[in-house]
Amino acid sequence: MSNQEQNSPVLEIRSLSKKFVKPLDFAGKIAQKLGSNIREEVVHAVDGVSLHVNKGEVVSLVGESGCGKSTLGRMVAGIMPPTSGEILYKGQNIASLTGEDAREVALKVQMIFQDPFASLNPRLRVRDIIGEAPLVHKLTTAAEQDDYLDDVMLRCGLDPSYKRRYPHQFSGGQRQRLGIARALAVQPDFIVCDEAVAALDVSIQAQILNLFIKLREDLDLTYLFISHDLGVVEHISDRIVIMYLGRVVESAPTEELFAKPNHPYTQALLREIPRLDARHADFTPIEGEIPSPLDPPQGCHFHPRCPFATDRCRQEVPQLKSVAPGHMSACHLNEG
Amino acid sequence: MAAAVQDDGINPWRTFASDFAEKKLAVLGLIVFVALIAAAIFAPWITPQNPYDLNQIDFLDGRLEPGSVGSQITYWLGTDDQGRDLLSGIFYGLRTSLAVGAASTLIALVLGGALGLFAAYFGGRVDTLIMRIADLQLSFPAILIALILVSALGQGVDKVIISLVAVQWAYYARTIRGTALVERRKEYVEAATCLAISHRRIVFKHLMPNCTPPLIVVGTVQVAHAISLEATLSFLGIGVPITEPSLGLLIKNGFDYMLSGDYWVSFYPGLALLITIVSINLVGDQLRDVLNPRLKK
């Protein structure tokens, strides 16, 4: 599926970080002045993540909830500014663009959201939900809007005669299609899917995933697919990136990752996917809770839950290193 | 989906009207409210007497009981101490009360609503500044602020409206901010941001329509509140001038005679005030239900 060799990355992220700081209130500041050790609470939601997505590729970002994958997606989609690091779209740094160029790039990167209920404005009709942005950005005119919308809606498997309806008159799967149609209406070429099927029934999940695959072929799209479920992304991704507490721990082509997972965290995740051929197996959840991002462990973030942790893991942060062609992993164990 | 309304070609106003009519009490409230507005607007043409034209008043008809026949007309609701027909007085009073209530509510709603929306959407310093002023204002009793302002600005309908706006805007700002803070974090706002839609458009086209239901409820309660606040100010003698009587002023006029058995001088204006406020609240409650598409069947 992938043709990475011929293409340069559509999107490249360079050591992107996002910190959420809860500033001290007035009383806290006074306490600090008086020598108390109260400090501002800082959550390092995304901690120096680098990755690239080539044209036509589907890259999946997988991790437990709270690992920063959605924050990363929102920064890529331009909804949230990063604290540090760069996002490059076709080689241009997004932050350095202004005016017309910035708008153009912003439209080229679109996002599809998790909650098909909260992601559609309940007071707008379908034609306004999908048609507002193309009209505002002059991708179509008022006169041609109807045809334009018919086209987009048909592409997403929606009946164009529903244009005058409100979102609450649709089912979950149809609403997700509306969300997809809204994103496609501005002619993007990179789409961030933030848990786009997590809120849907399993049968509907398959339909929507198939729609994503079909749209990629029709429109030459590139996806960054964010999910907590390796089972869902297995069939549609070319490459999988595993995140844990704000850092990338492993990145590999899908088949390789499933066949030869390197990082202990990835191995643990893979063991937990329910499979038909393992229906009698006992599932053993990964021990322990995901640590508080307010106070992440020293060294390798995964060490408190890792069965193989050594002293080095408790002190030194492992770097992403190549373990096979195209396969990167951040684990000290690889160095024996 | 089976229950989905295919509303192509159907007039949305008609749907709105039929939804509203589902609650009979609300319809009654609306009818009464419209009748009151009509009575207020057409007061000069439908009242038997212009109570503030001295030529039409007979001082000897003072404090006549309801239903008494005076020298020129029958006083269905009696007269006050000056011999003015109370029915006419109430219609004229309604005119002032409703105008003051509606004008002050409308201005406060637009002002407070916009400030609250900006506070919620932009957050940070804008939010702190606007909301601390609102807090400061709300920490004083409304009647105290109104009293201070009216006594500082002087008498007059416009001064009363200004002080009512100053008292009320904070309620709207606070209400809409609360709703907007919730709405602003919803994914449809993020989607609009992602679609590079301007701040102004997001605030007014996406955020505002989703924040209005509580505002309408607060708004109607506040119309009633504004009317009664104005009545209070007038009752205390610092509201509207006696040349432009409101219901509160009429109640004040009769208050001295309450204990001497001439109840009607205060009672009927008071009843008119009560009916006005109840009918507004009935309409407001139903409006809230109808304007929320999520409650639609």
Task: Set out the fold topology.
The complex is a heterodimer of chains A (336) and B (297).
Chain A: E1 9-22, H1 26-33, E2 41-54, E3 58-62, H2 69-76, E4 84-89, E5 92-93, H3 99-108, E6 109-112, H4 126-136, H5 145-155, H6 172-184, E7 190-194, H7 202-219, E8 222-227, H8 230-233, E9 239-244, E10 247-253, H9 254-259, H10 264-271, H11 311-315, E11 321-324, E12 327-329
Helix pairs in contact in A: 4-5, 4-6
Chain B: H1 12-20, H2 24-41, H3 43-46, E1 68-69, E2 74-75, H4 86-122, H5 124-138, H6 142-153, H7 157-184, H8 187-194, H9 199-235, H10 247-255, H11 264-291
Antiparallel strand pairs in B: 1-2
Describe it.
The complex is a heterodimer of chains A (336) and B (297). Chain A has 336 residues and is α/β, with parallel strands linked by helices. Chain A has a domain at 9-237: Rossmann fold. Chain A has helices spanning 26-33, 69-76, 99-108, 126-136, 145-155, 172-184, 202-219, 230-233, 254-259, 264-271, 311-315; strands at 9-22, 41-54, 58-62, 84-89, 92-93, 109-112, 190-194, 222-227, 239-244, 247-253, 321-324, 327-329. In chain A, strand 9 and strand 10 form a beta hairpin. In chain A, helix 4 packs parallel to helix 6 (172-184). The longest helix of chain A has 18 residues, at 202-219. The radius of gyration of chain A is 22 Å and the shape is globular. Chain B has helices at 12-20, 24-41, 43-46, 86-122, 124-138, 142-153, 157-184, 187-194, 199-235, 247-255, 264-291; strands spanning 68-69, 74-75. Chain B has a two-stranded antiparallel sheet with strand order 1-2. In chain B, helix 2 (24-41) crosses helix 4 (86-122) and helix 2 crosses helix 11 (264-291). Residues 1-9 of chain B have low confidence and may be disordered. Classes of the chains: A alpha/beta (336), B mainly alpha (297). Chain A binds chain B through residues 74, 77-79, 103, 106-107, 109-111, 113-115, 118-124, 132-133, 136-137, 161, 164-166, 168-171, 179, 182-183, 186, and chain B through 1, 4-8, 186-188, 190-198, 201, 205-206, 209-210, 293-294, 296. Chain A: It is a peripheral membrane protein. Chain A: Residues 11-270 form the ABC transporter domain. Chain A: GO terms for molecular function: ATP binding. Chain A: This is ABC transporter ATP-binding protein. Chain A: Pfam families: ABC_tran, oligo_HPY.
